[in-house]
Write a structure and sequence with these properties.
The chain has three helices and four strands. It has 126 residues and is α+β, with helices and mostly antiparallel strands. The protein has a four-stranded antiparallel β-sheet with strand order 2-3-1-4, with helices on one face. Strand 2 and strand 3 form a beta hairpin. The protein is globular and about 35 Å long. The relative contact order is 0.24.
Length: 126
């Protein structure tokens, strides 16, 4: 079993509950191959960098998966066939980061972290 990270972008026309149901179908595919979803982050509706099939926005979700390559092949095959999926990307990773991704962290929290890091650097250089 290997670790994978997958980001899925769904059409903006879907309601959040429809998108969740769609993702649950994909997760069931992974689970039928004895795979496990280690981490799941719903990033919500975000702007796309450019129009894709007349869509300016999309529902984003991140899945960290521990499964076999056969499960990933079937997972991606089913996503290719689904018209509600605009784009997806699955990559193999060495380890899963348990911390929330930067897109989940609140902007004010990001600013606090940046200030803390810059203060730490300036005190160590003094």
């Amino acid at each position: 079993m290997a670790l994978y990270e997958s980001v899925i972008i769904g059409r903006q026309d879907l309601t959040p509950s429809q998108f969740e149901e769609l993702v649950e179908e994909f997760i069931k595919i992974i689970e039928t191959y004895n795979g496990v979803i280690k981490k799941r982050e719903n990033w919500g509706i975000r702007n796309l960098a450019y129009k894709i099939n007349k869509n300016r926005k999309g529902h984003y979700i991140l899945l960290n998966i521990d499964s076999s390559s056969d499960a990933i092949l079937e997972f991606e095959r089913v996503m290719k066939l689904n018209e509600d999926i605009i784009r997806f990307l699955t990559i193999r990773i060495n380890s899963i980061d348990e911390k929330p991704s930067p897109l989940i962290i609140n902007k004010s929290d990001r600013y606090k972290n940046e200030v803390f890091i810059s203060e730490t650097v300036s005190t160590t250089n003094a």
